[in-house]
Amino acid sequence: MIRDVAIVGAGWSGFRSVTPELSHKELMYDAAVRAYEDAGIDPRRDVDTFVTVGEDYHEGISIFDEYVPDQLGAVQRPVQSIAGEGIQGLASAVMQILTGRFDIAVVEGHSKASNIMTLPHVLAFAMDPVFNRPLAVHPYAIAGMEMLRYLSETATTPEECAAVVAKNRSNALFNPLAGYGASISIDDVLIAEPIAEPLSRLECAGHSDGSVVFVLAAGESARVLSDHPIWIRGIGWANDTFWLESRPWGDARYARAAGEMAFRTAGIRSPSKEIDFAEVDDTFAYKELQHLEALGFCSWGTAGEWTLEGGTALGGEFPVNPSGGALGEGHLLDATGLARVLEVVLQLRGQAGQRQIDAAEVGLAFGWRGVPTTAGAAVVLSN
Amino acid sequence: MEEFVYDSVYLSSDDFREGRVLFEMWEPNARYAWDAGVAISRYLQGLKAAKLIGRSCPDCSRVLVPPRMFCESCFYPTDKWVTLRDTGTVLTFSRCYITWDLIQLEEPQMPAVIEIDGASSGMGIMHMLGEVDPEALAIGMRVRAVWKPPDERSGSITDIAYFRPLEE
Are B38 and A121 within 8 A, CB to CB? Predict the structure, then answer.
């Protein structure tokens, strides 16, 4: 990249299935205060630009970006909102710093999923109104169809997908932030009722409320502000075609493209050798496997076996979703990718407590925008 | 210069209603129940009790209404509840001749922002004016809240029916 950019502050709030005690603004304020304290900055004085990630339909308010500046300290400052995956918002802030016009940027993403009374309907409204929506299928059926196609193309087994759930929910037990920690077996997952075969209920991440805030700084500022900046080495994002009728169902091509862009900027040639661990989207259990393969951490069709053998476990050769992922922390709507980034930051700083990975030097976070999208974003971070 | 004229037909709403034109129509089923949180909950409780509640910032000493848990100017946590009077001064207003769903009105609605007595300068709440000749409205007019009867108050901004001129 033409300028060094680092994360110098991280804050979070919520990460629970309900948060009735706080309004969404109070939730964001709580996360922002922690991030600014962590970075040692005063947002009213030091921050040059703010980016928030959200979606009007999730907020329940049109033009939601009008309602974000107060609680971030962004009144009378440049504010931009991104209707996209959280890591796309991070990319936007990185690019603003790369212009040379801004030195310190703030990125925020949040979820008040518990406040959306008709979440499946809101999700279904994302489907094509002419070709798909009249069929009145739950959007999770898309995940079911994708999982079936992925299993059949790769010979991955339902047990291997279920192993992702057992691993991630168990990892979440070591993460005080995570609300969905559980000690459950592969069999528990397999006998759970089907949502959309072959996808079982326990293979779908539950939802969480929460907010994540990062403070980003350009090279020199980052070194002044922080003894331990976490450097953004590369970032990439991509969409595939929207057609359910002709998208590549087995292969997460958007993840491949996003990963390649991030690795290219980071100068990484061999992701599996040069990266120590990853937080990748696991909104549905099979997605973790699909994403690991598309990102090049293992060869096509081998992620399931690798997971079942423990290769991606906390003590494994390449830990995946040490935080518990979305299955363990809950799905934070548009902020889900930022929750993946948060764990990478904590691990690289050595602040991950009982789930700390030894000698974690380089990590990857990957976010997916969920069904029915083919939108993904990847970021490589290092000490 | 050659002019191209294409054959065309005019479409009427009947053409749509009777299916001679093909189209898709959807209404979103999007319902929300927002967590009010600390500041708004207290504000709504106050309204139910016919009281206007504000909150003060220890940094800039402003009294904010509606109350909030942080000052947007100082980015500092607010720390004190303040009960305000239910009187104030019209900061700005409009005579509005259409309803929110575009029905034309003979008698205008009178939305206004009212700077509340006891809150800091420029701190107002948006509400409606009533019991006043529309032509008599003026910036600086002194007004008082007209509260709904207790059994009709539900913890909502509409617990105040409207503001009317204050006899002083």
Answer: no
